[in-house]
Amino acid sequence: MAFWPMFVGESHILSNFNVEIHKGFPLFMKVTFLGTGTSQGVPVIGCGCEVCSSPDWKDNRLRSSVLVQTQGLNILIDAGPDFRYQMLKHRVHHLDAILLTHEHRDHISGLDDVRAFNMMSDQPIAVYAEQRVANAVRTLYHYAFSDLPFYGLPQMVVHEIGEGAFSIGPVQVNPVRVMHHRLPILAFRIGDFGYVTDANHIQDESMQQLMGCKFLVVNGLMRAQHISHFSLAEALQVMEQVKPELGIITHISHHMGLHQEVAKHLPGNVILGYDGLSLMLDEPDKGGGSSFLKKISHDTKNK
Predict the structure, then answer these.
(1) Do 246 and 215 meet the contact criterion of CB atoms below 8 Å apart?
(2) Which tens digit of pLDDT belongs to each residue from 114-131?
């Protein structure tokens, strides 16, 4: 039965995005946007612009992070300074792994708070990062890797990864190399879901790895060009190349403009991400056909 996906409790309908939901398929993946903001978040401290002063809760953005729930696992991508609040806000009671895109503080500075999960599970948290990022984590959180462990310290097991696929239990994760100005960082693909943040360039080989993603997240900092992040127009160019069923823009600054105004000018298969947005991806059909999508929005208004 075809229908128009809607945001729960709202009258807005995502036009031009007609999908088919087949009942009877088990839930394959749920993706929750814990934060969709840039390094300063929105509102920015001390700023009185129309976005930072907006009464629209979709204009309030924590630092970018997503929670991927699939095959019984909770996998977090990035743990920035809002990590503790994001876990509380979304009532996350356990984590199985954390994937790190790169070592900038807005992506790793919340890792100290994994200690709460350590205490509940009596297990260290598995962190997956490439060697340079892993070394940065060990340096910043040197006390967590001390030879003299102390009760209450965060416990992490850092797994160094490269550009090859790896598995977290039954879940295969495919790292994708992208560039953050001169810094090589990682995007990730899990099944039909791709997540790219903080990039300003994607090489042809990496673009090929993203082809076929039915649900693609790409950073779009603002409408003007930026030295190390995609602009909105550049993010839309990536969407046009990959042609996902649904594209979501993330890592958004207050310079982008008001959420509701920017959203009016996006292609029919692209939306502006916002904190609390959840995507529920049903399992692909056995013939290898298209994944099915049901999009919902939790009542996580930033009041």
Answers:
(1) yes
(2) 999 999 999 999 999 999
